[in-house]
What does this fold into?
Amino acid sequence: MENDNTIIFNNLADCYKNPWIKDKKERQRIIDIVNKFGIKKGMQILEPGCGNGEFTPFILKKIGKKGVVWLVDISDKMLKIAKRNLKNKKNLRYINCCASKIPVEKNFFDMVIVFNSFPHFYPKKIFIKEFYRVLKNNGFLIIAHDFPREKINRIHNKANFDMDKNLLPGKREMFKMLKKQGFVIKRYDNKVYYLLIAIKIIYNVRSAI
Ligand SMILES: C[S@@+](CC[C@H](N)C(=O)[O-])C[C@H]1O[C@@H](n2cnc3c(N)ncnc32)[C@H](O)[C@@H]1O
It folds into this structure.
């Protein structure tokens, strides 16, 4: 299960901090992005690449008492810190695994939220296939970043990530991969932040006749 990212993010875990933790303006920006996801009360939500759990409270605020967030991360250290950061919160499940092989049955989640993590998933198609498998019919896949794609790729390049494996692909390539898997694209923004919303739609041929 371990791969390069396990080592890289285990090493980063202790000093990993998001700007929205302290900066009010940044925090509001994240709230504005999350407001566009379409999260509803009672949803079962998967958060792959959850890191130290700093993003999770933004989801928790929306799902009410009956919703659940499933935090998945390949880095055991990140997940340990997430558990510590979220120790007072309810309705959480933690899984230390690669997001390409999530140990749940198919058609399980209402929404998969990949926040600031998708570039690190490689090869991308395997992850898209897995998110499709675990989503219910009409479930939502959200791929989002607090900055536009070009800035994200610049940051990762500067941080010396292997850019063959840690790239956020362009619009055309993303659409192609998602559509090939069976997703329908609902929304794409790449101006002040990055937001791609896709839906798993399985057409019931019988009911259409
Ligand atoms: C840049 S951090 C973002 C963390 C969090 N989403 C946030 O916004 O604070 C990316 C996270 O993805 C995780 N990750 C990378 N590859 C992964 C994989 N194959 N499966 C699950 N998690 C992975 C890393 O361990 C890391 O915690």
